[in-house]
Automatic annotation (TrEMBL):
Record field: catalytic activity: acetate + ATP = acetyl phosphate + ADP
Family per similarity comment: Belongs to the acetokinase family.
Protein name: Acetate kinase
An annotated GO BP: acetate metabolic process
Gene Ontology terms: cellular component: cytoplasm
Binding site for ATP: 15, 209-213, 283-285, 331-335
Annotated substrate binding sites: 92
Pathway in which this enzyme or protein is active: Metabolic intermediate biosynthesis; acetyl-CoA biosynthesis; acetyl-CoA from acetate: step 1/2
PROSITE patterns xref list: ACETATE_KINASE_1 (PS01075)
Sites marked Transition state stabilizer: 181, 242
EC number: 2.7.2.1
Record note on quaternary structure: Homodimer.
Cofactor annotation comment: Mg(2+). Can also accept Mn(2+).
Amino acid sequence: MSYVLVINSGSSSIKFQIVDPSAGATDTPLVSGLVEKIGEFRGGLTIKHNGEKHEHVLTIPNHTAGFKRAFAELDRLGCGPTQLDINAVGHRIVHGGTIFSEPVLLDETVVSTLRELIPLAPLHNPANIDGIEVARRLLPNLPHVGVFDTAYFSDLPDSAAVYAIEKSLREEYHIRRYGFHGTSHEFIAGELHKQFDQPAEEINHITLHLGNGASASAVRGGKPIDTSMGMTPLEGLVMGTRCGSIDPGIIFHLYREVGLSIDGIDKLLNKRSGMKGLAGSNDFRDIHQMIKDGSQDAQLALDVYVTQLRRILGSYMIQLGRVDAIAFTAGVGENDPVLRRLALADLENFGVKLDDSRNESVGEGVQLISTDDSPTRVYVVPTNEELAIAQKVDRLVG
């Protein structure tokens, strides 16, 4: 059996899995691991293998040390990249700009191009590139493949992708809606279409990827026609620590009146806003408990989140005209029945009928949570971005 090593390299963490590309969506990967708090005094390495969790507390100064330590521990457990039949290494890359719309073999030319795209994703692409370069040095005999979060939305209609600013600036600085979480949205579309007898070309659906980062997509006949994230992952829905869509004038106000620097505003809107900024926590389990304890801030945070979610959901329903299915996915979407109920409240006249019992008792795999007579079916669909990346990599390298 051949596997794909899937790597998601962040600025202070490395997530990885060793995946069988032929596995099912809910199958447990052979190996999953996390290197965290890179560059801090007290870091950590966690590996799950054969139903056991192996945890280590240690200092990890940089990505090179993180990869080396992780691979050494995998070797000790007998499941290292050189001990198994690893077919290729797949790298999650956040931003492919307008250049990369398909998975690509990573070489020096491609990595150089990725560096040119850093201004489009300064918080993400540098860490992705670090992971690519270190992994290629440590595993030089394997093909390395880049899979892009933006690829699924690369063919958005111009009416959805173009921002209403001066044409020359848009074109020179590649300003447009790119969309993110594309690997997840595409995976959910594939899982969702299995629930219908019609071909994908005849199905319209909306996917709500609700995790710490959150995004929505409207898909007509198998092709996305709109998505909530924009040139960066900051636009759209309220998220764990990101504000989502706000009046752009707020940025000018924070700069002129409050005296925040551009970097300070960037950090505020990306790291200290969203649910964390509203309620002090970006964990929905905390939010619900705080509401039970009488917190008005937590109640307001949930209300703001749901209002923005319904605002985008409603606009997508109008754009599609006919919605055959709505899918909830990712950590919050898959595990929070209260949020799902609030998001779909009072939509019966629009063809959405939630079954409260099904919504409260979601099991494993794809689960129908609407009533049997609901014109629009509602599903909870577990996402598996690592499996989706592994499958794309496997198709490219054979």
